[in-house]
Specification:
- By secondary structure, the protein is an alpha/beta fold.
- The chain is elongated and about 85 Å long.
- It starts with 11 loop residues before the first helix and ends in a 5-residue tail after the last helix.
- 39% of the residues are buried.
Length: 393
């Protein structure tokens, strides 16, 4: 594994060992290896002596498999097989979006009102499928874990695998979006029809709530208004706290104890997304630790380029067609063609990454070589961790 010339390497071990690093957020577009990276960072940090919890939002449950767990759910579970000689530990969990929302209701309302809210059709739709809820609940769970770690000393490092998303940083926007959607002013608008007659309701519609009403009507059909009114009446002022918690979560993400790691693949589209992530984090003044480029093709025979390997293979092929080649020559031709394909991929990866680093000078970056097989156990995660921690190898 190497880094591009004049690029400051991302010193992963320094990040993991630093006691002031309390949260690592792995972000990036889908399919670039965020889940594997988060798990590998968690394993390495735990075996360096940190008490770690890894939170994943990955629907494929690959994290559970690679950590040797039969399943993951909304409760942190200890990972066995970790080397605890340095005094560290590792737990892992998978976000359960609805259960996390239920916990918010139970923790911020009376038992009677909580029962009404949990049974309400509007709440059930909102907590299960409303746009942005998964991203918001990921940040809500992060806030809960952070508070538990501070109060109980349970963990000193939280590693977050963010939701896969086409829109690069939905999870950053989600606290603000959901806080705005459910704040006190919006609730008062929803309650207007119940407090006044039909004419007042028409005024409310012309006051800007038409779009929101249409969205909720799609979700809940003809019963929407009645369900919403019942829902809001049960909530009273509870959702006033959503905005406050959203602001607290956003402040937590900007705190100096948080470190963002942008994960990418060495391809044009993935690095374009990574560039957007880096720029957006800079705009939001979020603490970026660096960029990890996964699955980079590297070749031992650096002097043999794709073009030279292709030319040599072509020459051997012509000799074979002329009847002057041997079995050894045919085998060599095949190997050269394989090498040419790999070398072409390596050159493409190098070029894409070089263009990214040229556009983002000074951003720490490290590359992880492509693995020979899928990562499916702790040993594989340890290997990824060693690659992450050894820039230039």
């Amino acid at each position: 594994m190497t880094t591009q010339p004049d690029v400051r390497p991302l010193r992963v071990d320094d990040l993991l060992q630093n006691p002031s690093t309390g949260i690592i957020v792995c972000c990036g577009s889908g399919g670039v290896g965020k889940t594997t990276t988060a798990a590998a960072l968690g394993v390495r940090a735990a075996e360096m002596g940190r008490n770690v919890v890894v939170l994943t939002i990955d629907p494929a449950r690959r994290l559970a498999q690679s950590l040797g767990l039969s399943e993951l759910d909304n409760t942190p579970r200890p990972v066995l097989g970790i080397d605890t000689a340095a005094g560290g530990s590792l737990e892992a969990m998978m976000l359960d979006m609805k259960r996390t929302f239920d916990e918010v209701v139970l923790n911020h309302s009376t038992p009677e009102k909580a029962e009404q809210i949990l049974a309400n059709p509007f709440y059930q739709a909102l907590s299960s499928s409303f746009a942005g809820t998964q991203e918001y609940m990921a940040m809500e769970k992060l806030s809960q874990l952070s508070a538990q770690a501070a109060e109980e000393g349970t963990w000193d490092l939280i590693v977050v695998d963010t939701p896969p998303s086409r829109s690069a940083l939905d999870f950053l926007d989600a606290p603000k979006r959901l806080g705005s959607f459910l704040d006190g002013r919006f609730i008062r608008l929803l309650m207007a029809p119940a407090r006044a007659g039909g004419r007042a309701y028409l005024k409310v519609l012309t006051g800007g709530i038409t779009m929101a009403t249409a969205v909720m009507s799609k979700l809940l059909g003809g019963q929407m208004l009645q369900d919403v009114q019942t829902f809001v009446a049960a909530l009273d002022t509870m959702f006033g706290g959503f905005r406050q918690r959203a602001e607290q979560t956003y402040a937590l993400l900007k705190d100096s104890r948080t470190a963002f790691v942008v994960v990418a693949a060495p391809e044009r589209d993935a690095l374009r997304e990574a560039s957007y992530f880096v720029d957006r984090l800079d705009q939001e003044h979020m603490p970026l630790a660096g960029v990890i480029v996964n699955r980079v093709q590297r070749l031992a025979a650096r002097g043999l380029t794709a073009a030279r390997a292709d030319a040599a293979a072509e020459a051997l092929g012509e000799a074979s067609q002329a009847g002057t080649g041997s079995a050894t020559a045919a085998l060599t031709e095949g190997l050269l063609r394989v090498h040419a394909d790999l070398a072409e991929t390596a050159e493409r990866h190098h070029g894409h990454t070089a263009r990214f680093t040229a556009g983002h000078p000074g951003i720490p970056l490290t590359e992880v070589p492509a693995a020979a097989q899928d990562i499916h156990d702790l040993d594989g995660l340890r290997e990824i961790g060693r690659a992450l921690a050894t820039p230039g190898s």
